[in-house]
Amino acid sequence: MIELESGVKVGHYQHQSALVGCTVFLFSEPNRAVASVLGKAPGEREVSVLRAGNLVESVDAIFFSGGSAFGLCVGEGVVAFLREQRKGFPTQAGPVPIVPGAVIYDLEVSGGILPAPEWGYLAAQRASFPPQEGSVGAGAGATVGKALGLGRAMKGGFGWSRVEVSGGYVDSFVVCNALGDVYDPFEGKLLAGVRGAGGKPVGFFGTSGNFSGSPFNTTLLLLFFSFELSREELEALSGVVHSALALCVRPLATLYDGDLAFLVAGRKRKRAGYLEIVRAVYEGVGKATVNAARRAKGTPGIPACSDIMF
């Protein structure tokens, strides 16, 4: 695997047999971070810390986990790992690790297996770059197209993409566990979503019936900007991030989605031009979401994009 420069390292852990896991992002240098919640059913930890104007600007790690609210315990393992490394917000009693995170609902496919704090520790230990993609980490139990239930759904997963900009790059990471369908925004093609009676995806807008599927869904995003941006600039860009995701996931941010995005920027390099950043966000979110669908692996009863011939 080609080694790439990166201000963030990514580690996955998933259960050996169950469809559930977690993903940890470690940041080696001071940064600025914000979070933006778009869906109406989020599950998160320490997101309020990241509001512009609050004391703490920098995060030491961010985690994504399966297991719904039970998965929030993964953050404890990440904190333990960072405490051993003596990383965190400086205080007179020693550094306090700042570890926000968010979870997806995958309890219907995880076989009753719930995340444990040590999963976060193990994922942090494995952090490297570039990351593995597909049905790994927090994407292990991800599914999409659930408007007619899991019996008509398809597999989601974890995806990553890097877009170069002047003087730096934007890394986009996505865990796609959406109620809606996944589209390739560059070709307009339906990749994964609600399947018709014949087993092939027809999408939310191509089917009819009793929409009584899973009421709990979430797409999680993390964008890392290798150049300096203020928290106010990051908050302004969060709307662009959700707009880019809306081209990929349809419908998005419903009452039954907990869609949430983290935006993290370095502090060393001069920022690229605004419209160049906007273009990188659209391209990066699009490619990462497509990768999450295309590189997922199917499981009995829930096929992946790669299992179905269009």
TrEMBL record:
Gene3D superfamilies per record: L-amino peptidase D-ALA esterase/amidase
Organism of provenance: Thermatribacter velox
Taxonomic lineage of the native organism: Bacteria, Pseudomonadati, Atribacterota, Atribacteria, Atribacterales
Protein family membership: Belongs to the peptidase S58 family.
Superkingdom as given in the UniProt entry: Bacteria
Protein name: P1 family peptidase
Pfam families linked: Peptidase_S58
InterPro entries reported in the protein's UniProt record: ArgJ-like_dom_sf (IPR016117), Peptidase_S58_DmpA (IPR005321)
Coiled coil spans: none
